[in-house]
Amino acid sequence: MARAFYWLLPHPLLTLLLVVVWTLLQNEFSAGMIVFGVILGIIIPWGTSVWWPDTPKGFRLGKMTTYSIMVLWDIVVANVQVAWIVLSVPNSKLKPAWIVVPLELRQPEAITVLAGTITLTPGTVSADLSEHGNSLLVHVLHTDDPDAVRDDIISRYQNRLKEIFK
Amino acid sequence: MSGEIIGTYATAISLLIGSAFIIVGVIGLLKFNDPMTRLHAPTKVGTVGIGMLLLASMIHSFVLGETSVHEILIMAFLFVTAPISAHFIAKVSMHTRTCATPPSPPRDDTWSTLSVPEQELQAEE
């Protein structure tokens, strides 16, 4: 039974997400569109599961929600800080820096979320991954203390993501 | 004060905040003088700038009585795609060495952008 379920729905969460996205795209709520969304939600994950065989296990949706809200708040705060840097710091006094974040996350999905979070937060851009995925290269726009930025990323984002993707 | 007036003011304020952030982003893009620092400006425009404009659009259609949720989708797609383009611009500037050389990673040999397959190394020798 479970095998039949996972054969038909290799990624149950993706199916749910596709249904929601399809319904939102229609901009109106009707039964026919939801049925069509369910059909798409079954066909697309089933057809693409060859390229994405591993289902991320132990994903915690509740913690992901609080994480997203925290990231949104961080984005707003960082936006104001970076706007101030852009307007007030002259080019000659700007101190950009590379920082290296040691990665403790192993799943590709978790690393993607971490890198995306870092890029979306203004002031930091994730630039590259090391050869075997053990460290993440991050560029910081303006900082006096690169080590503090690195520790902040580890304690604020990575430790939370470790709990989300267990 | 009726809901319509409050809605109009909320729309106007959101538009103003969004445009202000976009202007700051554009100033950053023009002012900074190397590709890596320039890359920081669009991340600001792409998040709060566009976000506030979309919020204004949502409030506006809500006040007119046509609830619109497309904006949430636009935001979601932007949040998913923006880091990828930023990542590729960063990779290009690392490749062309137009930025300061990054420190080498502590646990691996090199960054994946700068890593060269072994056959090519032998061919160069």
UniProtKB/TrEMBL annotation, chain A:
Q: What is its main location?
A: membrane
Tell whether Nuclease is among the UniProt keywords. no
Regarding the membrane, this protein is recorded as: Multi-pass membrane protein
Family, as annotated: Belongs to the CPA3 antiporters (TC 2.A.63) subunit E family.
Q: Does the keyword tRNA processing apply?
A: no
InterPro entries, sorted: Cation_antiport_E (IPR002758)
Source organism of this protein record:
Litoreibacter halocynthiae
NCBIfam families linked? PRK08965.1-2
User: Any one cellular component term from GO for this entry?
Assistant: plasma membrane
Designated name of the protein: Multisubunit potassium/proton antiporter PhaE subunit
Q: Transmembrane region positions?
A: 6-25, 32-52, 64-87
The organism's taxonomic lineage, starting at the top: Bacteria, Pseudomonadati, Pseudomonadota, Alphaproteobacteria, Rhodobacterales
Question: What GO molecular functions are on record for this protein?
Answer: monoatomic cation transmembrane transporter activity
Q: Where in the cell is it found?
A: Cell membrane
List the Pfam families.
MNHE (PF01899)
Q: Enumerate the UniProt keywords alphabetically.
A: Cell membrane, Membrane, Transmembrane, Transmembrane helix
TrEMBL record, chain B:
Q: Name one GO molecular function term.
A: sodium:proton antiporter activity
Residues forming coiled coils: none
| InterPro entries reported in the protein's UniProt record | PhaG_MnhG_YufB
Name the residues that span the membrane: 6-30, 42-63, 69-90
Q: Which UniProt keywords apply?
A: Membrane, Transmembrane, Transmembrane helix
Task: Please list where the region (Disordered) is annotated.
Answer: 98-125
Q: Which NCBIfam families does the record cross-reference, listed alphabetically? A: CPA3_mnhG_phaG
Q: What is this protein called?
A: Multisubunit potassium/proton antiporter PhaG subunit
Q: Which organism is it from?
A: Litoreibacter halocynthiae
